[in-house]
Design brief:
This protein is α+β, with helices and mostly antiparallel strands. The chain is built from 19 helices and 22 strands. Strands 1, 2, 6, 7, 8, 9 and 20 form a 7-stranded mixed sheet that branches. Strands 14-15-16-17-13-18 form a 6-stranded antiparallel sheet, with no helix packed on it. The two termini are 50 Å apart.
Length: 635
């Protein structure tokens, strides 16, 4: 290795959503960083749907932003359609979703990456890692040029041994029209990683001028959307609507009669699909009782004719795709600009990772995104940020950056991956977060901005501004508690006008705000009320008041979690020596090597008896070791 012309602190392989967040975090935290992408024109490409956010995903984007990531900022600059999902439900499940101009998103993120000091961007196909004594020291590209790096982060998405399927046609590709990464995939296998195979897909893109939108249900943006990023002052004014249609009996007949032509059902595709996001073939064949399935049409940008046909994803031959599309109301004359396809790709079972997303097999090597068996732009970006931060911490000799499940959705995702592994593409759901009432989208900045500031990813001015707002929230709640309301005739008249039950006992404005039907501003008719011009402060006062009891119970549960996470386990403990432990659990514990009692408890299949047996043996070995040390001292 004499040709060490390129040396970096961190090398990031892949320039998708995970790669961009990883590379930007590393550069911003002071590390000389290089990011490779097979094609620089596809940096941050939205390869599937044109939206950022969604159920539980909006929480991830807010957290990425609060920690100093870029996804929320770029989304705010390029969004053309805005929706708050679950708006009629409680705040714990409110999730923002923004439909973007796809090309504008790509170009905006590309500009951020290219203009980031300390970050170098190269178009190259990385063929292999260079390992010495179990530690990564760099990478080799397709021309065998060596790039030295203290840490390497792989964020290759669907490119590892990627194989695109359209009918019987099979094309090695990371995405339709792009090269697959074959050499690196084989290199990871040779290194001994447990590699699996997964499958995903994307629906057809239709020409807007060939769609009869007049026959479809139109959905416009929310009138007063909130940005993802706390730094965004104003959103763009251009808006694009979405449209709704549905499959028909004819659609289902076409699929049933031609199902043998689908590589999913002919046995050609071996990769595991996601149950929560089935292809149209799967929907028709698995849910035969359904007469129709929804189809959502979303414009891919302000200056393109392409329309994303959500719900029509399949991998049937092109001529059958046309029949399927034309069987849908409003799409009878629709032109397919890009056909739907399925793609198979390699992933690394994430139980082979530490909570930092560093691999256990190779020191200094980190994995983030779909290579870890996940699905979705937001999940990838969150992992990229997490891996990037930890790579820098390792380079700089700082403590690892690890949050627990009570602190962030990102932490829930990482813990799920490294503790439980995956048997299908992993997607974030609010149901995965047991503390979701305190992990809301609306309080992400309160929860995480301080940590982002400590890492050097958040400007201290923003953090001080947040502290001022937090103080106003506390003062606002205290003022409500101190404002007395008596059960007078006048009080009850005001309550009746607000469709709220009469008051029988003395209370406070704080007590009244707990009522479901009363908002902060509706309390303006009562003495002691103060206007609150800051919408963020007002929102937090209202949520913290209405859900006070529930939030307190969750914080009580968090205390138990914190105690479990404090109890560290020896990393080299021999689980084979534990009597009464099943072979299955011994294998899982050895593979995962849990770092804390809490993590051990979350391993699938663990029982109270098994946990007790492990802890008893650990205690015995600890006492035995202490006795030996004392004996050695006396000698």
């Amino acid at each position: 290795m004499e040709n060490l012309t390129d040396n970096y602190d961190v090398a990031v392989i892949g320039g998708g959503h995970a790669g961009c967040e990883a590379a930007l975090a590393c550069a911003r935290m002071g590390c000389r960083t290089i990011m490779f992408n097979i094609n620089l024109d596809s940096i941050a490409l939205m390869s599937c749907n044109p939206a950022i956010g969604g159920l539980a995903k909006g929480q991830l984007v807010k957290e990425i932003d609060a920690l100093g990531g870029e996804m929320g900022k770029v989304t705010d600059k390029t969004a053309v359609h805005f929706r708050m999902l679950n708006a009629s439900k409680g705040p714990a499940v409110h999730s923002s979703r923004m439909q973007c101009d796809k090309q504008l998103y790509r170009l905006t993120m590309k500009a951020v990456v290219e203009n980031q000091p300390n970050l170098y961007v190269r178009q190259a196909m990385i063929e292999s890692l260079v390992i010495e004594d179990g530690k990564v020291i760099g990478v080799l590209d397709q021309s065998e040029h060596f790039y030295g790096a203290k840490k390497v982060i792989i964020t290759t998405g669907t490119f590892l041994n990627g194989l695109v399927h359209v009918g019987v046609s099979q094309i090695p590709s990371g995405r339709a029209g792009e090269l697959a990464s074959i050499g690196l995939a084989n290199n990871l296998k040779q290194l001994g990683f447990d590699i699996g195979r997964m499958k995903t897909g994307t629906p057809p893109r239709l020409r807007a001028s060939s769609i009869d939108f007049s026959r479809l249900e139109r959905q416009d943006s929310d009138p007063d959307p909130q940005p993802f990023s706390f730094t965004t002052k104003a959103l763009r004014t251009e808006r694009l609507p979405s449209y709704f249609s549905a499959t028909s009996a004819e659609t289902h007949r076409i699929i049933r009669e031609n199902i043998q032509h689908s590589p999913l059902y002919s046995g050609i595709i071996k990769g595991v699909s996601a149950r929560y996001c089935p292809s149209l073939e799967d929907k028709v064949m698995r849910f035969g009782e359904r007469e129709s399935h929804p189809v959502v049409l979303e414009h891919e940008g302000l200056d393109t004719q392409e329309v994303y046909a959500k719900g029509l994803g399949n991998c049937l031959p092109l001529e059958m795709q046309y029949k399927i599309v034309h069987s849908v109301k409003g799409l009878e004359q629709a032109e397919i600009m890009r056909p739907a396809y399925a793609i198979e790709y390699d992933f690394v079972q994430p139980t082979q990772l530490k909570p930092t997303l560093e691999t256990k097999l190779v020191d200094g090597l980190y994995l983030a995104g779909q290579i870890n068996g996940t699905s979705g732009y937001e999940e990838a970006a969150g992992q990229g940020l997490w891996a990037g931060i930890n790579a820098v911490c390792a380079v700089q000799g700082a403590p690892a950056f690890i949050l627990d499940r009570s602190e962030a959705y990102i932490a829930v995702m990482v813990d799920d991956l490294v503790t439980r592994g995956v048997d299908e593409p992993y997607r974030m759901f609010t149901s995965r977060a047991e503390y979701r009432l305190i992990l809301r989208e609306d309080n992400a900045t309160i929860r995480l901005m301080g940590k982002g500031c400590e890492l050097g990813l958040i400007d201290r001015v923003h953090y001080l501004d947040l502290q001022d707002r937090i103080k106003k929230i506390e003062q606002g709640i205290e003022h409500l508690k101190a404002s007395s309301i008596k059960p007078t005739a006048e009080t009850n008249e005001k309550l009746a006008a607000l469709n709220s039950p009469p008051l029988n006992n003395h209370t406070t404005l704080h007590g009244l705000l707990k009522r479901y039907e009363l908002s902060y501003d509706k309390l303006a008719v009562f003495p002691g009320w103060q206007p609150q011009p800051d919408s963020f402060v007002k929102q937090q006062i209202e949520i913290e008041t209405k859900y006070e009891g529930y939030i307190k119970r969750q914080f009580d549960a968090v205390k138990k979690l914190k105690e479990q996470e404090k109890k560290k386990l020896p990393p080299d403990f021999d689980y084979d020596c534990v009597p009464g432990l099943s072979n299955e659990l011994k294998a899982k514990l050895t593979k995962i090597a849990p770092q804390t009692l809490g993590q051990m408890e979350r391993i699938p299949g663990m029982t109270e008896g098994a946990i007790s047996a492990v802890l008893i043996m650990m205690k015995r070995q600890e006492l035995s070791g202490n006795s030996k040390k004392e004996k050695d001292k006396t000698i």
